[in-house]
């Protein structure tokens, strides 16, 4: 399918460009990596495993695709992984890796709540370590659900700055999964805003996938039927995009000249800016600083 994004992307030849796609081994990230490689970029695809769904063949055929192993559940491993790249190696970094919260509280071997680690803290650690690996003027796109325009936006009011790792006792229920998802999106967005202020010569954005066909819920072991039904559209008529079609959206964000002049922005799946001003007024500067300090403390020395 050719849509406005692939048409716009046809203007750009990416030969000689270099990209890192974290979570590029399947789903959305794999789509992004394929579009970048087809358009001429050389791409490092990062994840735990190459999957047996055909992309392994592409790796041997297309020299532009290389695999680099990382386990985002481990900050020790993220630090090792980041250390394998040179300063200013990449033009583009895309962070698509993620899981959907199951509503249950699970911990990594490093004692961090699992979804907090995969969907937020890994980015807090990884993006700070990887930003120096991005060239001046380079762009970083993170992919995660929105909160303001989400179906579950009503849970924003329950965002609890004192319980970022979901430690307060709660019932294991579906709404808890949605609350976790909203929290992780808010945290990611605050991170992207802070990084864009700290690095004014590099460009950061956070974008909503909309609905993209992938094995996200199966991979994340989500037990709730209503969430499964909502996502079932992925396999049926209401599917919005395939990973490769969505890859064109991400590549548009990486290459469009006008978008490139903005940093710290949150976009919907049609690349329209999401207005978060009402929510942002409710979260104080002290709370934002508290979240940053908490993230530093939990991730300990990994970013140094
Ligand atoms: N698909 C949608 O419609 C949709 C909608 C809203 C939000 N999202 C968000 O978009 C992001 C990508 O979703 P998706 O549909 O592409 O999911 P997916 O098909 O399940 O792919 C997830 C990716 O994350 C990587 N990953 C997961 N845990 C990892 C770990 N511990 N270490 C390293 N890599 C890890 C996986 O790599 P390995 O398998 O190699 O470990 C895989 O490449 C997620 O944050 C998801 O919540 C997706």
Can you give keywords for this protein?
304 residues, alpha/beta, Rossmann fold, seven-stranded parallel beta sheet, 11 helices, 7 strands, binds NADP nicotinamide-adenine-dinucleotide phosphate, Retinol dehydrogenase, oxidoreductase, oxidoreductase activity
Give your account of this protein's structure.
This protein has 304 residues and is α/β, with parallel strands linked by helices. The chain has a single domain (4-299), classed as Rossmann fold (3-Layer(aba) Sandwich). Helix content is 40%, strand content 13%. The chain has helices at 4-9, 27-38, 55-61, 75-82, 114-130, 174-198, 216-220, 225-232, 243-255, 277-282, 285-299, and strands spanning 18-22, 42-47, 65-69, 90-95, 134-143, 203-207, 265-267. A seven-stranded parallel beta sheet has the order 3-2-1-4-5-6-7, with helices on both faces. Strand 1, helix 2 and strand 2 (42-47) form a beta-alpha-beta unit. The N and C termini lie far apart (44 Å). It binds NADP nicotinamide-adenine-dinucleotide phosphate (NAP). NADP nicotinamide-adenine-dinucleotide phosphate binds at residues 23, 25-29, 47-49, 70-73, 96-100, 118-119, 143-145, 209, 211-212, 214-216, 219.
Q: Please, how many domains?
A: 1
Radius of gyration, in Å, reads 18 Å
Percent in strands? 5-15%
CATH superfamily: NAD(P)-binding Rossmann-like Domain
Unreliably modeled segments: none
Strand order of the largest sheet: 3-2-1-4-5-6-7
CATH topology name, in short, is: Rossmann fold
State the CATH class.
Answer: Alpha Beta
CATH architecture name: 3-Layer(aba) Sandwich
Number of helices: 11
> What is the ordering of alpha helices and beta strands?
HEHEHEHEHEHEHHHEHH
Keywords: Oxidoreductase
Protein name: Retinol dehydrogenase
Organism: Acrasis kona
InterPro entries: NAD(P)-bd_dom_sf, SDR_fam
């Amino acid at each position: 399918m050719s849509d406005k994004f692939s048409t716009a992307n046809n203007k750009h030849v990416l030969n000689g460009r270099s990209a890192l796609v974290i979570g590029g081994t399947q789903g959305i990230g794999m789509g992004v990596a394929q579009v970048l490689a087809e358009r001429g970029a050389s791409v490092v695809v990062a994840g735990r495993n190459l999957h047996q769904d055909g992309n392994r063949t592409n790796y041997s055929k297309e020299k532009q695709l290389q695999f680099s192993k990382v386990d985002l559940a481990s900050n020790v491993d993220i630090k090792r992984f980041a250390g394998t790249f040179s300063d200013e190696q990449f033009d583009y970094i895309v962070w698509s890796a993620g899981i959907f919260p199951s509503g249950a509280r699970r911990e990594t071997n490093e004692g961090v709540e699992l979804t907090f680690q995969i969907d937020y803290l890994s980015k807090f650690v990884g993006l700070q370590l990887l930003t120096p690996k991005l060239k001046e003027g380079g762009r970083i796109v993170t992919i995660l659900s929105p909160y303001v325009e989400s179906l579950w936006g009503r849970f924003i009011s329950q965002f609890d700055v004192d319980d970022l790792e979901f430690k307060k006792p709660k019932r294991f229920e579906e709404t808890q999964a949605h609350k976790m998802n909203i929290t992780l999106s808010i945290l990611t967005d605050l991170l992207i805003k802070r990084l864009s202020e700290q690095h004014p010569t590099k460009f950061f954005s956070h974008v909503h996938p909309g609905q993209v066909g992938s094995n996200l819920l199966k991979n994340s072991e989500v037990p709730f039927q209503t969430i499964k039904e909502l996502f079932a559209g992925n396999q049926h008529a209401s599917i919005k995009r395939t990973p490769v079609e969505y890859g064109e959206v991400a590549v548009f964000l990486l290459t469009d000249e006008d978008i490139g002049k903005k940093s710290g922005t949150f976009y919907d799946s049609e690349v329209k800016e999401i207005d978060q001003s009402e929510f942002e007024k409710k979260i104080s500067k002290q709370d934002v600083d508290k979240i940053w300090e908490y993230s530093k403390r939990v991730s300990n020395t990994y970013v140094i």
